[in-house]
Amino acid sequence: MSMFPQQDATALNDKDPEQLRIHSIETFGTHDGPGIRFIVFVQGCQFRCLYCHNPDTFDVKGGKFITLQEIEKRVLRQRPYFGKDGGITISGGEPLLHRKKILTLFKRLKEQGIHTCLDSNGRLVNKEVEELLEYTDLLMLDVKHINDDWHHKLTTVSNSATLKLAEMREKQGKPMWIRYVLVPGWSDQEEYLHELGQHFKDFTTIEKIEIQPYHKLGVHKWEAMGMEYGLEGVEAPTKEVIEKATAIFSQYFKEVHVN
Ligand code: SF4
User: Fold this and answer.
1) How far is the CA of 47 from the centre of ligand 1 (A)?
2) Which atom of ligand 1 is least distant from the CA of 46?
3) Which residues form the Radical SAM core domain (predicted)?
4) What percent of the chain has pLDDT over 90?
5) Which of 52, 127, 32, 145 is closest to 93 using CA atoms?
6) 242 - beta bridge partners?
């Protein structure tokens, strides 16, 4: 009999510092960070956003594995297309769940002069995350709601870690974008848009805020997974609602972009 407790292959892969559990890869992304980007969507998320269009990334034991070496090889192969702004973006799922492996990857890529970007919900704040952020050229922080009760309703968790992560980034003095999903009746309340603006208006590291109008492209995935979709009946924001949010954010941020 083996001296070691039995472990399945995926548990061993998770322990392997060179293997990253991912959902998918997009090679020429233009919506997640500046320029043309190699985007890795990692697997696993602790938020349960009602509008999530990638619910198939929820399961921390789902997805598939790719080695860091393979990612590095593919990024370097794509480098000629990055131009002066492009690079790698790690999105998800939630990248901070894979912070140690992403740190290793970012260290290697930065040695090669690759621009690194992290798209995170900010769920975790600790020393490891701080070090990862030091190797992250751009943090795109998803702030789902400035009011904690509404944040709970939208995501099932508190926004306190997200707001702390924003402060950590501000102390680092490195670039950050805020991303905000605009959902009619849920995150378009004028008073909270102002509150969000007030909260962040003195941050010097925020280059812009991106409004992401709610859409229903992921609904079929919820249905296919046999899960109830929590925003049934909610429509995409109208042009007027988007313009109103843009006007409010423009009072506090130097650049407001609608994705
Ligand atoms: S944080 Fe992102 S991946 Fe996680 S549930 Fe929310 S939208 Fe989905």
Assistant:
1) 6
2) 4
3) 31-251
4) 93
5) 52
6) none
